[in-house]
Amino acid sequence: MIRKIVRYPEPVLRAKCRPVTEVTPEVRTLAADMLDTMKEANGVGLAAPQVGVDVQLAVIDVSHNPDCVTFMKVDGQSVNMVEHMPIVFLNPKLELGSEKELGEEGCLSFPRLRADIRRSCGIKVSYTDLEGKTTTVETDGLLARAFQHEIDHLNGILFIDRMNAVAKVGIKRKLARLMQEWEEDETGEE
Known about the structure:
This protein is of the alpha+beta class and about 190 residues long. It has a single domain (about 10-185), classed as Alpha-Beta Complex (Peptide Deformylase), CATH 3.90.45.10. Helices cover about 30% and strands about 25% of the residues. Strands 1-2-5-8-9-3-4 form a seven-stranded antiparallel beta sheet. A hairpin with a 5-residue loop joins strand 8 (about 120-130) and strand 9 (about 135-140). The chain is globular and about 45 Å long.
């Protein structure tokens, strides 16, 4: 089922999300709905607060771009990234690599807004999957960026918070204009 994607400045986007303590049928349904919603919106990731639910659950699928990573390890074993998509993850613990890079990001909760964000090039993340198993992924590229972006959502951090000071100043007017457009989209006004 496609769910409505919450747009900035909805308060749930600033929530520090609750851990998922048990993989229930409701959690599985939420994960399936989020995958459908992400795919429908042409996104690469989606976090539960973006559909109005403040739990530590997110989904990622970068399989459309098999060259977006140079490596992926699952539980220490090198794997083919495409074969491990989509990823549904609960209660993640993130370790950031020291090397950083600037890259363009967007967010489904900020339609038509993109910005350059500095993120770690490589990451290691441990999480619980829908089977209740702990999995550790090491990766780089778009997948590492997507994990960082979605995990930020689970902590109430938005990509606009990661912009440098100059970019934040420059984007204020554009964001105000976009927020007005989003409101008009919601109300059906022209």
